[in-house]
């Protein structure tokens, strides 16, 4: 059995996280419940930062907050001196409400609205990662109209497909994101922005995929982007000071996943950037990275309560839990795999193989296809590991299920950071039908 971060099993045979008993957490807050191991999040952040410090290179580590966005996690990210990626006005608003340092906020997205861009200018955020020509036009207009400066990075697709699941690969040329590096689009984008009075081109950005285990793709991307910036220096006598290599560092969901330590990916990137820069006579740029999953993924655990069971004789045995695709759509969406444990029977022998089903009205609502567990009974607490990234942030109210609560645990203490939705919350935006309005 693999435990993550501060997880242990206590004398009662219960799973603990951050020094708190998860069975007690389930009783106190109800289930489904997201539990975040904040010490582990801090350790992950520091490991990335230390690697850059040791290699003596300018850097920013930006938490890609679409993985899990909330006021409280933004406040912890600020404590850890992280920068922050946001991809919508909603995430930006949350960051501002959290008091996150605005100059360290980076705004992403392939279709930012005018209102979102205007908000970015008015809040004077750190930079906008520009995705397309329409956005360049909008940024020029807005910056001239507001007479405000803005740092920009140009997002490019370097034509490298990292070996991962197709649905979550964005580095290929056939991608909805960014300027193509190979067919002249990136050059055109640079030419259109480099001399602009208010837009300051900081450099290039790429994000080649997610859940990547191999360093080769990162090395190839680093090389291509540095070479392009060196080429522009020759051509325009303009040195881009920043290279942003995105996120996508793989984590261990199950024993099938064998990630390198995060520092290993970063070391290889830095080495490549240094070598290629030296060869091209280019000043080593600052390196920015954007880990999402690898910062927050294994810090999150979901607790569910086991309810009904069903046996399909000779085929499989189902156990159903009180959540499902409404709080974690990744298994249904990508066939994502997870590991689990019965938190109240953490030392018991794993004598059964179950399919863990959710409670949503979809046959595909299965959380774990094959879970090795002790014999399960109604009322047992199932802990599903590594749900910290793209779990709560992709949660929905499908079937009008209320979204779970989220608690942070650290040093033996626990605190509620997102309340469980109530039935009242579910109808909060509903407006009663008025037959008078459409009566003829
Ligand atoms: C999603 C995303 C990330 C984070 O990806 P992870 O796989 O969670 O590390 C980083 N940068 C960009 C641009 C993204 O879209």
UniProtKB/TrEMBL annotation:
Q: Record-annotated residues binding pyridoxal 5'-phosphate?
A: 248, 290-293, 390
Biological or metabolic pathway of the protein: Amino-acid biosynthesis; L-lysine biosynthesis via DAP pathway; L-lysine from DL-2,6-diaminopimelate: step 1/1
Name the EC number(s). 4.1.1.20
Instruction: Give the Orn/DAP/Arg decarboxylase 2 C-terminal domain ranges.
Output: 34-388
| Recorded catalytic activity of this chain's protein | meso-2,6-diaminopimelate + H(+) = L-lysine + CO2
Q: Keyword Cell cycle, does the record have it?
A: no
- An annotated GO BP: lysine biosynthetic process via diaminopimelate
Orn/DAP/Arg decarboxylase 2 N-terminal domain: which residues? 41-296
InterPro entries, alphabetized:
Ala_racemase/Decarboxylase_C (IPR009006), DAP_deCOOHase_LysA (IPR002986), De-COase2_C (IPR022643), De-COase2_N (IPR022644), Orn/DAP/Arg_de-COase (IPR000183), PLP-binding_barrel (IPR029066)
Annotated substrate binding sites: 293, 330, 334, 362, 390
* PTM-bearing positions, type N6-(pyridoxal phosphate)lysine: 66
Q: Which one of the record's GO molecular function terms can you name?
A: pyridoxal phosphate binding
Tell me the active site.
361 (proton donor)
Write the record's keywords in alphabetical order, separated by commas: Amino-acid biosynthesis, Decarboxylase, Lyase, Lysine biosynthesis, Pyridoxal phosphate
Q: Which HAMAP family match?
A: LysA
Function per UniProt: Specifically catalyzes the decarboxylation of meso-diaminopimelate (meso-DAP) to L-lysine.
Q: Which PANTHER family match?
A: DIAMINOPIMELATE DECARBOXYLASE, GROUP IV DECARBOXYLASE
The UniProt similarity line reads: Belongs to the Orn/Lys/Arg decarboxylase class-II family. LysA subfamily.
Q: What is this protein's name?
A: Diaminopimelate decarboxylase
In its UniProt entry, the species of origin is given as Planococcus salinus
